[in-house]
Specification:
It is built from 16 helices and five strands. By secondary structure, the chain is mainly α.
């Protein structure tokens, strides 16, 4: 395995529709990605220890490297070559059964055709921008609330038990904060899947590692998501409520002036950086009604201006590591 990335889904949003930016729409009529979601969340629970000699090898054959990573990194029950593996798997199955986890997943997701169609459209756009790249395999699973979305080199795992809806009794019992529960909904799966894939292919790299670098990086990822899902509501792609999205757009200029006047752009303290780009109910330096991750929002607007000014391609944008260059060429000057 050349790469393994866990994408931690601690996100805050609610399912409200925003405006579609038509400038991201491109003609993908001649691109036909055939995407079929594999349902490990169902296949795994037909395995039983008495028949493991047959079923487990079948799962290994069907899911390949993904299955091994899933066992070792997500469930943490060890590899299939270990003598105690079958019993550990049985314990996991029993845990999910007794706590009605897999039943809840199957009830919420009896069919994945709508998600499959949306992701297929997203990867049609992916092939438009990256014609030489391969489409990853998409696999749904149950993580017992350990992870949400994780990626390997050629596959993406979606743990459906982390997207049961904000009112799920599981999340209340787990004491997950309300602002996080608002985004544990089916509607965010497509955009968060593409976010995870973008961050896997284009991980954060910086020598300065200051606030500006973090803002620009998050802005580039958000621009990528817009390119992949042009028809998805902005509120879903941003994981914002309508009020938060409105606050961000209304206060963009004031936020930028604050960052410049207080010399925050080149701040390297991780705690301070997190205040502007990390997950939270709101952006701490501003009011408690402010949009969270406002630094990422401003970073996106800088990137958007940069793309308008330079006509760079999406691959060129993602490969550009010089945040100061992006800021300078963007001619960003919000009112």
């Amino acid at each position: 395995m050349n790469r393994f990335l866990i994408f931690f889904m601690t996100i805050s949003a609610t399912f409200l529709f925003g405006c579609t930016e038509n400038k991201f729409e491109v003609n993908v009529d001649d691109i036909n990605v055939d995407l079929t979601i594999k349902r490990l969340d169902k296949d795994l629970f037909v395995v039983n220890s008495s028949d493991s000699s047959v079923n487990i090898p079948n799962l290994e054959k069907t899911y390949g490297e993904f299955f091994e990573v899933y066992n070792q990194k997500i469930l943490r029950i060890g590899g299939t070559n270990e003598s105690a593996y079958a019993l550990r798997l049985k314990d996991f199955q029993r845990y999910c059964s007794e706590n009605h986890i897999q039943d809840s997943v199957w009830a919420k997701y009896p069919d994945l055709s709508a998600l499959e169609q949306t992701l297929e459209t997203a990867f049609n756009h992916y092939k438009y921008y990256f014609p030489k790249k391969n489409i990853p395999e998409v696999i749904t699973c149950v993580s017992a609330f350990n992870e949400s979305i994780f990626t390997l080199e050629n596959s993406i795992g979606i743990a459906l038990d982390k997207f049961l809806g904000e009112k799920s009794s599981f999340y209340e019992r787990l004491a997950i904060e309300k602002y996080l529960r608002r985004s544990m909904i089916p509607q965010v799966i497509p955009s968060e899947t593409m976010r995870a894939w973008a961050k896997a292919e284009y991980p954060y790299e910086s020598t300065a590692d200051d606030l500006l670098d973090n803002m620009i990086y998050e802005g580039k990822i958000q621009y990528y998501i817009n390119c992949m899902l042009p028809e998805t509501a902005d509120t879903l792609k941003w994981r914002y409520t309508a009020q938060q999205f409105g606050w961000a757009t209304t206060h963009e200029g004031k936020v930028w002036n604050y960052l410049v006047e207080n010399k925050k752009l080149f701040e390297t303290d991780r705690i301070q950086i997190r205040q502007y780009v990390g997950e939270a109910p709101f952006t701490t330096p501003f009011t408690d009604v402010s949009a969270p991750r406002i630094g990422a929002f401003v970073g996106y607007r800088i990137v958007e201006n940069y793309m308008n000014q330079t006509n760079a391609s999406l691959p060129e944008l993602l490969s550009e590591k010089d945040s100061k260059k992006i800021l300078s060429l963007s001619k960003y000057n919000p009112k």
